[in-house]
């Protein structure tokens, strides 16, 4: 089925390429009939669309074939808006051309104007200016301009038209979002492909091998919600929650999750199979051409750009995998183990406010909150780690691309819900901060966890000699470290161990005791705690941290 559906895509994209070949290099065939209906376009009008909820995502048990980006789930509340009854016709778009808007930068986005300048475009690609008037290039013919057919443009042109239209009307005119397109589709109660007795629009090669008048196929109060031409939206394609890469075609969707590929909806006259279904999600670069036009809407609701794409920084991905990925070589999740040990130590003590210093992407913070702490603050110096931890707290999920080998990556999505941590979100907050120079507001903690932090600080001595100011009397400081001292992070004079003094070795635990003993009491014996960080498919770091517990005197 994947092979069949892929060839259907080739059928459509090839027809667009054929349409751009020199006219004398192609031949109109009898069984690829052009629609004979042409005339003057109807006056477009805006109709009200009531607010409502949309639910997107193809169910896993759906009987029709779907590409991987169609699966998962997305729900949204759509505000009420006005929508054009018809697709924008050639006649309606002519006003934009005759107003000289292809020569006026004010109507274009920066990207759009750069494209216009590069292509020296003065009208839509398939329009031909002749002595006899405007002509339209179909797939293999040039015909007198059918003014009542939909105009076919790229996203950049459609967006410029909407900007111009908004200025003319004084109203917030723009392209619809994917959610708004689905709201229209739901209101008009359009059947999906398996329920057709006959195609309800100019789609699936059911009628002609060309576009047709914009008032030919009515669907509810609107026309051409599906079929005739694809419809550009304001929404760059993004993965739904629960998206999983198909193992047989792992680069079908993910290269487009870059906010530069906008979704087209509804299908065209040559869209067949999956392309002609409600759940279809195809996206193109904004300067590309397809058999695509547009419908405009009037709405003051902001356009949501889903920029929660896959984190591709290799170090950040490693930490995401270490915090939320599967166990490796039977070694328990390090962050979860640290939190569990802390919670056992806190039995009989006040579970007020905990501080997770060097929290990275936040797993221990959430585990401490689940264990009973009323409030947990996670701090990390790294912007990328803080950003990911905050996203996990705000949205309940993360996506990351893990480096497997060379340029090959695997794609992952993790959620708090799958670890039973969803209910902790309101009791955890993340900030970016320097552990050696903490702002005054970070104080009053019953527990401070500094997991694998001290050997990455530029001044571990300053941190340890001042952390008591942040802890409540009788509170606990839990420190773990593999003591990987390096001048990459701190000068040697700052190291707590890993050097010789008077010929004798000084170990990390010795340095901890020296700095902390004046204000803390060591509780119990140090504990070895292993952890594994997966770097690639075949390379792992297997380390052993030493965990010590200190009670403030």
Automatic annotation (TrEMBL):
Gene3D superfamilies xref list: paralog of FGE (formylglycine-generating enzyme), Vaccinia Virus protein VP39
Residue intervals passing through the bilayer: none
GO MF, one annotated term: formylglycine-generating oxidase activity
Sulfatase-modifying factor enzyme-like domain mapped to chain residues: 45-297
Listed name of the protein: Sulfatase-modifying factor enzyme-like domain-containing protein
Native source organism of the sequence: Trichlorobacter lovleyi (strain ATCC BAA-1151 / DSM 17278 / SZ) (Geobacter lovleyi)
């Amino acid at each position: 089925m994947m092979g069949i559906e892929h060839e259907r895509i080739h059928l459509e994209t090839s027809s667009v390429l054929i349409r751009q070949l020199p006219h004398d290099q192609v031949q109109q065939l009898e069984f690829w009939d052009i629609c004979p209906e042409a005339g003057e376009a109807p006056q477009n009008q805006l109709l009200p669309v009531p607010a409502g909820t949309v639910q997107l995502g193809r169910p896993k048990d759906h009987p029709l074939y779907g590409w991987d980006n169609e699966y998962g789930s997305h729900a949204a509340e759509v505000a009420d808006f006005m929508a054009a009854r018809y697709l924008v016709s050639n006649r309606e778009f002519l006003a934009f051309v005759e107003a000289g808007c292809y020569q006026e930068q004010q109507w274009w986005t920066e990207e759009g104007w750069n494209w216009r300048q590069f292509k020296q475009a003065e009208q839509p690609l398939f329009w031909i200016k002749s002595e006899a008037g405007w002509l339209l290039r179909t797939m293999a013919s040039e015909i007198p301009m059918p003014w009542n057919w939909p105009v076919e443009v790229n996203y950049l042109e459609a967006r410029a038209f909407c900007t111009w239209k908004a200025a003319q009307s004084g109203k917030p005119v723009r392209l619809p979002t994917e959610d708004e397109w689905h709201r229209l589709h739901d209101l008009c109660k359009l059947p999906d492909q398996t329920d057709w007795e006959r195609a309800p629009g100019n789609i699936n090669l059911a009628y002609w091998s060309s576009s047709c008048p914009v008032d030919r196929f009515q669907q509810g109060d609107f026309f051409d919600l599906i079929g005739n031409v694809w419809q550009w939206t304001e929404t760059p394609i993004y993965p739904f929650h629960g998206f999983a890469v198909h193992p047989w075609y792992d680069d079908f969707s993910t290269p487009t999750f870059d906010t530069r590929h906008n979704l087209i909806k509804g299908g065209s006259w040559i869209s067949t199979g999956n392309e002609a279904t409600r759940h279809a999600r195809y996206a193109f670069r904004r300067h590309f051409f397809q058999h695509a036009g547009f419908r405009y809407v009037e709405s003051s609701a902001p356009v949501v750009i889903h920029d929660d794409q896959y984190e591709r920084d290799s170090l950040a991905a490693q930490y995401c995998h270490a915090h939320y990925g599967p166990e490796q070589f039977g070694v328990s999740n390090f962050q979860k183990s640290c939190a569990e040990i802390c919670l056992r130590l806190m039995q009989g003590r006040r579970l007020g406010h905990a501080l997770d210093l060097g929290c990275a992407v936040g797993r221990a913070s959430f585990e401490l909150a689940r264990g009973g702490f009323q409030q947990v603050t996670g701090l990390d110096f790294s912007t990328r780690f803080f950003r990911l931890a905050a996203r996990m707290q705000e949205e309940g999920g993360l996506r990351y691309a893990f480096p497997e080998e060379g340029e090959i990556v695997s794609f992952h999505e993790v959620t708090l819900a799958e670890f039973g941590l969803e209910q902790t979100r309101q009791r955890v907050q993340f900030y970016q901060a320097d552990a050696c120079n903490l702002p005054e507001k970070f104080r009053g903690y019953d527990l401070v966890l500094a997991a694998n932090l001290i050997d990455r600080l530029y001044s571990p001595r300053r941190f340890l000699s001042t952390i008591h100011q942040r802890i409540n009397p009788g509170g606990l400081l839990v420190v773990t470290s593999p003591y990987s001292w390096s001048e990459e992070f701190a000068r040697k004079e700052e190291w707590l161990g890993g050097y010789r003094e008077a010929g004798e070795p000084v170990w990390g635990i010795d340095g901890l005791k020296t700095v902390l003993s004046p204000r803390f009491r060591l509780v119990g014996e140090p504990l070895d705690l292993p952890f594994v960080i997966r770097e690639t498919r075949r390379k792992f770091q297997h380390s052993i941290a030493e965990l010590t517990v200190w009670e403030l005197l």
